[in-house]
Amino acid sequence: MSTQGKDFRLCPALRDLPEDDHAALAALATVATYKPGDWLFHESAPRDWFGVVAAGEIELQQGRYGQTVRLGAVAAGALLAEEAWLDEQPHTASAQARTAASVLQIDRESIRELRGTHPDLFYRVLARLARQVGERLRLERDRLAGLVSPGLTGHTRT
Questions:
Q1: Quick check: 131 and 12 in contact, CB under 8 A?
Q2: Are 74 and 157 in contact (CB under 8 A)?
Q3: Residue 53 reports pLDDT greater than 90
Q4: 153 near 135, Cβ under 8 Å?
């Protein structure tokens, strides 16, 4: 499988992985392309893949009480569906392409296989994803406490 155009260094959370890890992730990845308005995934649907936005903008939203609530938008370098590394829970939000977009994706089955065949790589990635999730939680806590502006929810979400 070609690794051309599959550079996970786009994502700040994964940038410091060793070169061999980047090559292994690229070998597992596919590049999915989306037109403006295309849905990447829907709230409550199974998480079928983990991804990094390679280009474009993706809107994150959640349905509540018959209304859609905009959670934010992500662009190149942002993580999507990173919880696919953690558990079998469904998506907690929906994602829709705001512009033409491409996403580097690793499917859930490849993640499971990686855990068994290369646990060292699996856990190096997992540690970086957990650090990113922790940073988002700290920023959200600070936002709720009024310590940061409401528009700031992380490096990759606006």
A1: no
A2: yes
A3: yes
A4: no
